Recover the amino acids of this structure.
């Protein structure tokens, strides 16, 4: 494992465009080694775009991404990415164990056979996500929560230094949510950096070390008390941001502020 660098991930003035539309505009921040970060913002703010840029699925229009103080191309194999479930073809005829083993391919090579250690890592990931009992099931037979656990297990089998999850808590059952939170806590003890995107503002504030608020550009990043202020939230969500009598923060997804709409 490479030398531990305090600033595990550094995003430096990156911009990303889809055609003529700028989705991310000069975004800069860093994530410290072994910390957890929740990325929030309105629909179309660029959260998924940010994650895809970090893992190299989208090209940068400008700026730099650094991992371990080196260009991200040098360390892409140490970043594991769990996309939104609707982006995955669940009808592909493979078993749960096959999918999790895919997390090892960067290490063993696509044309090499897994070794004993690879099977041990995969079995450990299956057990950690509590899906070892369905290891031989086809993925198209699984519930949404089970599918989410499979892709988390694949990410863990990669033995990443950084784990990025796009909307991991959307449409899953409570047991899977708790398994995911338990996993995040264990990863922190292993000094794995965790980034997630979420629409749940209260979850972001209560369960993560820091919060990053974006709407195409960076609005604020840091501890939740610094980021989740009325001023910052109105800058991001406009009139869609609401505070209930009990202090809970919500975003009115039914009636969004159209001035902030864009493709994510």
């Amino acid at each position: 494992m490479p030398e531990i660098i305090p600033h595990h991930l550094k995003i430096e003035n990156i911009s990303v465009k889809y055609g003529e539309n700028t989705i991310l505009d000069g975004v800069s921040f860093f994530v410290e080694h072994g910390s957890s970060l929740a990325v929030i913002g309105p629909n179309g703010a660029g959260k998924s775009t940010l994650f895809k840029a970090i893992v190299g699925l989208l090209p940068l229009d400008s700026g730099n991404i650094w991992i371990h103080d080196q260009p991200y191309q040098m360390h892409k194999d140490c970043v594991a990415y769990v996309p939104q479930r609707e982006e995955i073809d669940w009808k592909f005829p493979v078993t749960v164990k096959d999918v999790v083993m895919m997390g090892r391919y960067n290490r063993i090579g696509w044309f090499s056979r897994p070794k004993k250690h690879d099977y041990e890592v995969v079995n450990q990931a299956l057990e950690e996500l509590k899906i070892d009992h369905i290891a031989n099931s086809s993925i198209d037979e699984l519930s949404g929560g089970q599918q989410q656990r499979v892709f988390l297990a694949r990410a863990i089998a990669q033995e990443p230094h950084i784990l990025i999850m796009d909307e991991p808590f959307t449409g899953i059952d409570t047991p899977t949510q708790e398994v995911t939170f338990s996993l995040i806590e264990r990863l922190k003890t292993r000094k794995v950096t965790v980034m997630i995107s979420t629409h749940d503002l209260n979850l972001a504030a209560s369960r993560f070390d820091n919060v990053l608020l974006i709407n195409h550009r960076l609005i604020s990043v840091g501890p939740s008390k610094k980021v989740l202020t009325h001023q910052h939230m109105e800058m991001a969500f406009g009139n869609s941001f609401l505070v209930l009598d009990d202090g809970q923060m919500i975003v009115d997804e039914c009636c969004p502020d159209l001035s902030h709409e864009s493709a994510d």
About this structure: The longest helix spans residues 174-189. The mean pLDDT is 86. The CA atoms of residues 39 and 197 lie 5 Å apart.
